[in-house]
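User: tokens in, sequence out, please.
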């Protein structure tokens, strides 16, 4: 036992798993051994949820990586190589975890030693099912790996439909469509219609697409999978797409978010994405929400085929009434010296035609900074009009 891990790591990389399996079989001839590399087998997370207790085997060195997670977070820990005993469901189980590198790719494999195969497999299933579930976090896919992001989940909770400024009809249509779809599973199944949805948000940057996605995540309370990129140096984009959709099917009903879809899809991976969206695999309960600033870059097979994205919502530049609402909301949060009158707000709104919400935000922030640097009570409106002219020139470049 004491030297198993160190001996294993001295073996050729492709021989490590067989070496460990055969050694454990010799050491525990009357026990069952279950192997797994599944990414969500995280016994530390399972224990933090109160579902088991873990005791390190003191005769074996435990190599634990301490992870810095930011100033406001506790230090994290990740077991690289170790042996522990786990008390779960009135059973005592041993778990061996070994990490090694093969051709630049890091692999962690776990060996579960239990009294019977049924117990070992039951423990594996219980841990993976618990860790697969999303508990107050967003599941983020990047560089070929899934991570749970609690900070992103907390940030999203600040975005609601109540503080989202859109044309009222567009906001109402989006909310009602999602509510009707999620409440209609039995109807879809009764008529043999696949209960899945693809939604594409289209429009120039800075006009509320991201805020809308956050508001939907916040309101619908479904597991959320957010895809940053399908690219990874150690595997193909096609294999990463397969992993993403397999994970989404396990989490369904869920939201699968892909922002800037035009930047994710290329000639090499397009057909594979189309098959994942609308192929033989069952996507029941998977709601894909994608956005694009450049719909002209998307293949017609993605943009125009209803079975892939059956709902498309266009986010135009804000009209004057929406610009006024945005400026009025910002104005209410300002100190008295910075506040504009309603007439001044209408004046600024009329002079910002063609501004996105992102540019309006920049106008508000840059005007505040200029006013603070050169305070002039009662002249905030003039400052904003000057800054609006400067930003308009920048927009032309």
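Assistant: Sequence out:
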């Amino acid at each position: 036992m004491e030297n198993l891990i160190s001996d294993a790591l001295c073996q050729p990389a492709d021989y490590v798993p067989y070496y460990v399996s055969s050694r454990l079989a010799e050491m525990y001839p009357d026990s069952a051994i279950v192997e797994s590399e599944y990414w969500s087998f995280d016994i530390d997370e399972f224990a933090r949820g109160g579902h088991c207790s873990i005791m390190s085997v003191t005769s074996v060195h435990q190599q634990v990586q301490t992870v810095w997670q930011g100033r406001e977070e506790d230090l994290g820990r990740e077991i690289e190589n170790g042996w522990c005993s786990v008390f779960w469901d009135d059973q005592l189980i041993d778990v061996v975890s070994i990490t090694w590198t093969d051709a630049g790719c890091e692999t962690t494999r776990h060996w579960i030693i239990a009294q019977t195969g049924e117990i070992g497999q039951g423990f594996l299933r219980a841990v993976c099912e618990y860790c697969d579930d999303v508990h107050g976090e967003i599941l983020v896919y990047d560089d070929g790996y899934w991570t749970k992001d609690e900070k992103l989940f907390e940030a999203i909770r600040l975005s609601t439909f109540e503080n989202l400024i859109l044309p009222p009809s567009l906001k109402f249509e989006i909310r009602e469509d999602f509510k009707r779809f999620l409440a209609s599973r039995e109807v879809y199944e009764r008529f043999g219609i696949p209960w899945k949805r693809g939604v594409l948000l289209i429009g120039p940057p800075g006009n509320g697409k991201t805020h809308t996605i956050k508001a939907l995540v916040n309101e619908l309370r479904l597991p959320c999978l957010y895809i940053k990129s399908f690219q990874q140096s150690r595997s193909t984009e096609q294999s990463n797409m397969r992993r993403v959709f397999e994970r989404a099917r396990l989490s369904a009903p869920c939201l699968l978010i892909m922002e800037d879809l035009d930047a994710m899809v290329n000639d090499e991976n397009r057909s594979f994405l189309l098959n994942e969206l609308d192929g033989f695999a069952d996507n029941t309960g998977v709601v894909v929400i994608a956005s694009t600033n450049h719909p002209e870059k998307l293949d017609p097979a993605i943009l125009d085929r209803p079975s892939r994205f059956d709902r498309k919502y266009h986010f135009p530049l804000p009209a004057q009434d929406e610009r006024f609402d945005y400026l009025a909301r910002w104005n209410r949060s300002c100190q008295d010296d910075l506040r504009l009158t309603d007439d001044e707000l209408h004046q600024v709104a009329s002079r910002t035609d063609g501004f996105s919400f992102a540019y309006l935000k920049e106008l508000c922030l840059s005007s505040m900074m200029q006013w603070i640097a050169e305070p002039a009570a009662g002249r905030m409106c003039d400052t904003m009009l000057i800054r609006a002219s400067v930003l308009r020139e920048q927009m032309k470049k």
